[in-house]
Amino acid sequence: MSHADERVTGYFIDWDGNVRRTDDPGGDYRCEIDRAARYVGVTTKSGTLVHEATFYRDLDALARAGIKACVVAGSHPWGKCNDF
Fold first, then answer.
1. Contact residues for 17 (Cβ-Cβ < 8 A; gap 6+)
2. Could you read off the pLDDT of 17-32 as tens digits, one per residue?
3. Is the N or the C terminus of the chain less surrounded, counting Cβ atoms within 10 Å?
């Protein structure tokens, strides 16, 4: 797996249904990416896995998958468990 800061960029769907960039996931999280498996593991700085998602290399790949969601910036907050 590689980290997003190693120039592997793409998109994934967060737990709120938003599209996020792997190189700017926000929430002080980082992304570990396995392009061959189309996998994104979202982790804390200490390495705790908090979310798993499908890796999409570009917005066209999301559209081909039929996903119609908003792309949000890293500054957009992630939902918390007490939000539900």
1. 69
2. 999 999 999 999 999 9
3. C
